[in-house]
Amino acid sequence: MLSSNLFTRYVPAITKLPLNQRLTKDDLLTEDFLLHQEGKISVYYAPHNEYINVLARVLIVGITPGWNQMELAFRKARGYLEQGLPYEEICKKVKADARFAGSMRSNLIEMLNALELHRWLGVTSCDALFKGEGELLHTTAMLKYPVFVDRRNYTGHQPPLLSHAYLKEQAYQSLQTEATLLDRPLIIPLGKTVESVLHLLAAEDVIRTEQCVWGFPHPSGANGHRLKQFEQSFDSMKSIIGKFSRRNPIQHGLHGM
């Protein structure tokens, strides 16, 4: 399902973008796609997180789409519009193409495999979650539309998300909506900033603490402490996944239907 009708609103602007070539910040960080401006903070539309897979058993939550994901999402959407595909199909395909694209996806898959998440899901590798077995996975960002500070990717720290009224409200509302649309999924927050918002939701019984794999590091290559953080939290995370999987068994062979 689509989470909003914004894609329809932005189709005319997307169709004006160059076709079959990489897009630049001058193409996309423009008034045509600007959603919110507050000092140095700019929020832009992107079709990256419009599609919601309500049947997913695993929900992976990032901070916000970065520039690389934003550019890829627009470039793919432009091509799919040229092919004349239905809007919902375009948004679904764009999400599959762009979510955690690049080395971040590889790092994420490696860590998920180490935790043996694939055994519960009945797939040979978590790589399949981003391919043919995508029905099991939903990915999102607590700030679902790309946020930039002085045209640079927002990392959740400058300014701190919980101390910024607009960003905190957007993150809370977005996660509250998507977490409740899915049927009590296993939630994997990428980093402490995402965890901080999930703790707010857990305190209000929107989600359960045992749903969340606490301690999972952000998989970005820019996170130089990623491997150390993963090692430190490994036993705890594996225990959380093990307990959750035993309480929520999957009937393998049915998830692709």
TrEMBL record:
Source species, domain of life: Bacteria
Residue ranges of every copy of the Uracil-DNA glycosylase-like domain listed in the record: 51-234
Record InterPro entries: Uracil-DNA_glycosylase-like, Uracil-DNA_glycosylase-like_sf
Protein name from the UniProt record: Uracil-DNA glycosylase-like domain-containing protein
